[in-house]
């Protein structure tokens, strides 16, 4: 178990909340609210229809299902058995087909290397002991010429204030302890890991939240939440 790139406490934390994944008023409300923005951003960069897609760290399947609705063939992988059971159940209820697997990204990369047109890995890198290993696995999973998308949290005083003090304590949008500030990743660090893995970073986008309108928007401010789009050179 020591070689598995996962934090048992993190898996446990999300497993305990698994039954609430698809409740848009629950702790996962922010994920439901940002999902349409992320989905459209990905789909604009690479139209998902007919593509073979894998969502690494899919949790309860919010992004995975929405990509399947765009007529992509979607696989979702995670290490939380409870979250995957919820994802499977919701897939049956909604009639949206997604293949879910309980498997580590690195293991999946060995089993199905170069099989995917698109790899997404959202809100996961800041929850694992070795983010660079996940990035390498995503690179291995994608076909040459394919697209890889990551999202994570920047590490600076503003992100601590917004993502932890604001979101977890003041606005109570997320359960206390959802994030560990020490695991946040700066754009420079992520860019370096992306280059080291052999990917080309194409663009970076910020994700903002207005507490007054309670609306999320895509912008160029990467100081808190941000997403990156990469391509594996053909």
From TrEMBL:
Its EC number is 2.1.1.222, 2.1.1.64. Pathway: Cofactor biosynthesis; ubiquinone biosynthesis. SUPFAM superfamilies: S-adenosyl-L-methionine-dependent methyltransferases. Keywords: Methyltransferase, S-adenosyl-L-methionine, Transferase, Ubiquinone biosynthesis. Gene3D superfamilies: Vaccinia Virus protein VP39. It is an enzyme of class 2 (transferase). Coiled coil: none annotated. S-adenosyl-L-methionine binds at residues 38, 57, 78, 122. One of its GO terms (biological process) is methylation. Signal peptide: none annotated. GO terms for molecular function: 2-polyprenyl-6-hydroxyphenol methylase activity; 3-demethylubiquinol 3-O-methyltransferase activity; polyprenyldihydroxybenzoate methyltransferase activity. InterPro entries: SAM-dependent_MTases_sf, UbiG_MeTrfase. It catalyses: a 3-(all-trans-polyprenyl)benzene-1,2-diol + S-adenosyl-L-methionine = a 2-methoxy-6-(all-trans-polyprenyl)phenol + S-adenosyl-L-homocysteine + H(+); a 3-demethylubiquinol + S-adenosyl-L-methionine = a ubiquinol + S-adenosyl-L-homocysteine + H(+). O-methyltransferase that catalyzes the 2 O-methylation steps in the ubiquinone biosynthetic pathway. PANTHER family: METHYLTRANSFERASE (PTHR43464), UBIQUINONE BIOSYNTHESIS O-METHYLTRANSFERASE, MITOCHONDRIAL (PTHR43464:SF19). Belongs to the methyltransferase superfamily. UbiG/COQ3 family. This is Ubiquinone biosynthesis O-methyltransferase. It comes from Undibacterium rugosum. The lineage of its organism: Bacteria, Pseudomonadati, Pseudomonadota, Betaproteobacteria, Burkholderiales.
């Amino acid at each position: 178990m020591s070689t598995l790139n996962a934090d048992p406490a993190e898996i446990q934390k999300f497993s305990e909340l698994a039954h609430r994944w698809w409740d848009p008023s629950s702790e996962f409300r922010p994920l439901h609210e940002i999902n349409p923005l992320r989905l459209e951003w990905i789909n604009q960069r690479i139209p998902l229809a007919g593509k073979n897609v894998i969502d690494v760290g899919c949790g309860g399947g919010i992004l995975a299902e929405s990509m399947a609705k765009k007529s992509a063939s979607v696989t979702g992988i995670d290490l939380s058995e409870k979250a995957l059971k919820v994802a499977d159940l919701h897939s049956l209820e909604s009639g949206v087909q997604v293949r879910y697997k309980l498997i580590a990204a690195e293991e999946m990369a060995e089993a199905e290397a170069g099989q995917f047109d698109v790899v997404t890995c959202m809100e996961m890198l800041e929850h694992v002991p070795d983010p660079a290993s996940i990035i390498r696995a995503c690179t291995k999973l994608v076909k040459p010429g394919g697209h890889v998308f990551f999202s994570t949290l920047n590490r600076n005083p503003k992100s601590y204030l917004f993502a932890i003090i604001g979101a977890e304590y003041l606005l109570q949008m997320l359960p206390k302890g959802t994030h560990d500030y020490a695991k946040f990743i700066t754009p420079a660090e992520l860019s370096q890991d992306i280059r080291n893995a052999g990917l080309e970073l194409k663009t970076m986008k910020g994700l903002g939240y207005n507490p007054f309108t309670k609306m999320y928007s895509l912008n160029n401010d990467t100081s808190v939440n941000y997403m990156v789009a990469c391509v594996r050179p053909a």
